[in-house]
Amino acid sequence: MATGPRPAAGVRVPDTKLAVEATELVRDTTDELVYHHSHRVFLFGALQGRRRDLSFDPELLYVGAMFHDLGLGEGFRSSGRRFEVDSADEARRFLQSRGVPEDSVRRVWTAVALHTTPGIPAFMEPEVALVTAGVEYDVLGIGYEDVSAADRAAVVALHPRPDFKRRILAAFTEGIRPRPETAFGNVKADVLQHYVPGFERGDFVRAVLESPWPE
């Protein structure tokens, strides 16, 4: 049996059958950009969990981190749904097919579905909070100094991020370009506004004022 990815910065990656199968699925269905980013999300999320003294299930955090961007893939681009929901549904199918208890499935689904919705996951279960914390750390550098330079270097040595800023924005653009309506009210509208000529972002105030209600 494969042993899964190596530990980094004192964080041991789960080597359960479930985690190994999640690793294999993501490795086989995404490119190396998303594959390494997803590992870093787990590792940075776990490091933030350790710093915050949160008790979390490493296996659930790992699966949430590994699946969180799966919905950006080409096979999901005609779904008409937010990529976060496509990712979350894939995680749910994966877990349910392996007999994982429904409460655990719910935690992972929620962690994945909310990972681009700031201000809410931090107040939910640790696994939900820490998937978002890992994403925010790796993509936005939020809490950058919370992780030591040595731990950051250890994570990046194991899961490199060459030209990551440009490449992850390109991945977001390609994953959402075919379904621009799904960017309404969330941070991905900024991506499309920057990189997709002719994109017009939704306006909540206009949506209210132009609703069919007479007053």
* DSSP helix fraction: 55-70%
| Strand composition percent | under 5%
Distance between the termini: 64 Å
What's the tally of helices? Answer: 10
Radius of gyration: 18 Å
Total number of strands: 0
Structural class: mainly alpha
Overall geometric form: globular
Low-confidence stretches: none
State the order of secondary-structure elements, H for helix, E for strand.
Answer: HHHHHHHHHH
Largest sheet: none
Q: Average the pLDDT over all residues and give the rounded result.
A: 95
What does this protein look like?
This protein has helices at residues 17-29, 32-51, 58-67, 83-96, 102-113, 126-140, 149-158, 164-176, 188-195, 204-209. It has 215 residues and is mostly helical. Helix 1 (17-29) runs parallel beside helix 3 (58-67) and helix 5 packs parallel to helix 6. The radius of gyration is 18 Å and the shape is globular. The longest helix has 20 residues, at 32-51.
Q: Which short descriptors sum up this protein?
A:
single chain, 215 residues
Summary of the model, kept short:
The chain has helices spanning 17-29, 32-51, 58-67, 83-96, 102-113, 126-140, 149-158, 164-176, 188-195, 204-209. With 215 residues, the protein is mostly helical.
